[in-house]
Amino acid sequence: MPGERTDVDVEVDDTFQRAEWRVQRWGLAGLVLLALASAFGFAGAPGTLFRVAVIYGFLLVVFRLSGKRTLAQMTSFDLVLVMVIGDATQQALIGDDFTIGTAVVAISSLVLIDVGLGFAKARWAAVDRIVDGLPIILVDRGTPLTDRMAREGVDLGDILAAGREQHGLRGLDEIDFAVLERSGGLSIVARKDQDGRAADR
Hints:
By secondary structure, the chain is an alpha+beta fold.
């Protein structure tokens, strides 16, 4: 029948996936060689790799300290701030060397650091918690935890708005749990009735 997948399709997809992984590994190896070449002064401006590492670490700390909701709720001012940060970061990353080689080294180094950090987060739970934090319950069985909400910069309006957007809920009495996720977004669990269904709205 049209639309059905055959064993041949699955085998082709699997072959393609393995080839894609192989290309990714070789590509990452190439980026590592490029970063090493930069570190020893053979590619790009001297010190590019060091500057990239410092700026990446600094931005990671800044956004971690500013709280989960900083980038999750972008206002017009936040957008302007991100643009200014991007411009300042670009200047710090490449300095006065605007050659293609230096830009390639800076981009490659950023990608490598990000991939390396992702690997470290997957391998060590402590690194994952430090970098991304943990989900935080803000409403527990219908009861707002106001101290946590204040610390995280979330008000009741944010939670009610998320409840309306995700489940069409009308009020706090229809919310069982509200969780501030590590990404900064709010997840709402609707209150269930005795049959295990969402309460009538």
